[in-house]
Automatic annotation (TrEMBL), chain A:
Keyword set, alphabetical order: Endoplasmic reticulum, Membrane, Transmembrane, Transmembrane helix
GO biological process: dolichol-linked oligosaccharide biosynthetic process
Main location: endoplasmic reticulum
Protein name as annotated: UDP-N-acetylglucosamine transferase subunit ALG14
GO cellular component, one term: UDP-N-acetylglucosamine transferase complex
Annotated source species: Stephania cephalantha
One MF term in the entry's GO annotations: N-acetylglucosaminyldiphosphodolichol N-acetylglucosaminyltransferase activity
Compartmental location: Endoplasmic reticulum membrane
Family: Belongs to the ALG14 family.
InterPro entries in the record: Oligosacch_biosynth_Alg14 (IPR013969)
Annotated membrane topology: Single-pass membrane protein
UniProtKB/TrEMBL annotation, chain B:
GO MF entries: hexosyltransferase activity
Location of the Glycosyl transferase family 28 C-terminal domain: 18-168
InterPro entries found in the cross-reference section: Glyco_trans_28_C, UDP-GlcNAc_transferase
Protein name: Glycosyl transferase family 28 C-terminal domain-containing protein
Biological process terms in GO annotation: dolichol-linked oligosaccharide biosynthetic process
GO cellular component: UDP-N-acetylglucosamine transferase complex
Length: 225, 183
């Protein structure tokens, strides 16, 4: 009886140690650039945050090498009709540039249940966030991206948490990049702060120098707009 | 400066000199009420503006329409429009809420801009951006209650054009991290 009990305790402690070690290893490895010369191309999940967030993100996507970051999967909140339209307009302009129509197959557009509306109270956010996480999990199992680009607000948090979970469990290794919105000059947004403090974002970019001075692990990149 | 503007407006009586006010998709009655006040309209008229066009969004305060036939400021308003870009382009001065979309769209067009911060918002991080850009002299920043003072003392010549943003530094860092060769 006591033998069995001791065994159970030992097993639990061992499992806990393995998980913590794995998490620390994942965080450590994520803080370093990919060791060998990276793959030829990476499936890229682009999370569109709505309004100004989407505009900033699409400015970034516009300058990425499209043959490296492919296929591109765009996700926007189901309440946001404009963002995917703008993204597909950008993708359509790429097709025109190439003039061979192949690009259109390399972009996918998806909608996600939104975790928190602007102005929603933090308390009711808990319930809606839970539903959003389940939907996000379903989408992420389908996509399993190698790269995630996001810049807030809320929508990207469950997606990044799941991506981190996939890294820990070994389902898929991904690199998570977060660009804090240009509207954040003195303090990080809630989404940004979460992904920064939990070390879920592998690289964290800010657009104002005073933010970089406050959060030392971020990279200052100047204004995207 | 003011007399100069007055002179110009008399010479080019027919030229429309529009002040465009935009609140985006928000409800910002205190801004609409502020620009609808007689002293602000008089100031704008003195500075040579001929018309005031207000995009009032979800607000409930209805400004007073005015044709401007009596030599006063012509005032018109609407709630939403798909052609905000066109209104921004044809404006001589833009007075906007502090949303980053409106701010950068106006700055990109090189239009003089007064951003009015909505202090009624719950999470008021928006003032950060407006204040930072005001400090860098790309725009003027006001509150509804200080808008009149801002307009009566403003010197639009002192504003510095906003250099367009550049996403290539981010792209470079991402490429470097992923081990992609940068050309």
């Amino acid at each position: 009886m006591t033998m069995g009990f001791t065994f159970a305790i030992t097993l639990t402690v061992a499992a806990f140690t393995v998980i913590v070690t794995r998490i620390i290893y994942v965080i450590y490895k994520s803080s370093k650039p990919l060791s060998k010369l990276g793959p030829q191309s990476v499936s890229t999940l682009i999370v569109l945050g709505s309004g100004g967030h989407t505009a900033e993100m699409l400015n970034l996507v516009a300058v990425l090498q499209k043959d490296k970051f492919t296929p591109r999967i765009y996700i926007a909140a189901s309440t946001d009709n404009m963002s995917l339209q703008k993204a597909s307009a950008l993708e359509a302009s790429l097709v025109d540039e190439r003039d061979d129509g192949t690009m259109s197959k390399k972009a996918l557009f998806m909608q996600i249940y939104r975790s928190r509306e602007v102005g929603q109270s933090y308390l009711t956010s808990i319930g809606t966030t839970l539903i959003a996480i389940i939907h996000a999990l379903w989408l992420m199992i389908k996509i399993r991206p190698q790269v995630i680009l996001c810049n807030g607000p809320g929508t990207c948090v469950p997606l990044c948490l799941i991506a981190f979970f996939f890294k820990v469990v070994g389902i898929r290794w991904s690199s998570i990049f977060y660009v804090e919105s240009i509207a954040r000059v003195r303090r990080l947004s809630l989404s940004g702060l979460l992904l920064y403090k939990l070390r879920i974002a592998d690289q964290f970019f800010v657009q104002w120098p005073q933010l970089q001075r406050k959060y030392r692990r971020t990279h200052f990149v100047g204004c995207l707009m | 400066m003011r007399e100069n503007d007055d002179g110009q407006s008399k010479k080019k009586k027919k030229k429309r000199n529009v002040v465009f006010v935009t609140v985006g998709t928000t409800c910002f009655d205190s801004l609409v009420r502020a620009v609808d006040a007689p002293e602000i309209k008089q100031d704008l008229l003195n500075r040579g503006y001929t018309a005031l066009l207000i995009q009032m969004g979800r607000g409930s305060y209805i400004p007073t329409k005015c044709g401007g036939e009596d030599g006063g400021l012509a005032v018109d308003y609407f709630t939403f429009s798909s052609s905000i870009a066109q209104h921004l382009k044809s404006a001589s001065l833009v007075i906007s809420h502090a949303g980053s979309g409106s701010i950068f769209e106006t700055l990109r067009l090189g239009k003089p801009l007064i951003v009015v911060v909505n202090e009624g918002l719950m999470d008021n991080h928006q003032s950060e951006l407006a204040e930072e850009l005001a400090e860098r002299k790309h725009l003027l920043c006001a509150r509804p209650q200080t808008l009149h003072q801002t307009i009566s003392t403003m010197n639009l010549e002192s504003l510095i054009p906003y250099p367009p943003g550049d996403a290539t530094p981010v792209a470079k860092l991402i490429n470097k991290y992923l081990g992609f060769l940068v050309d």
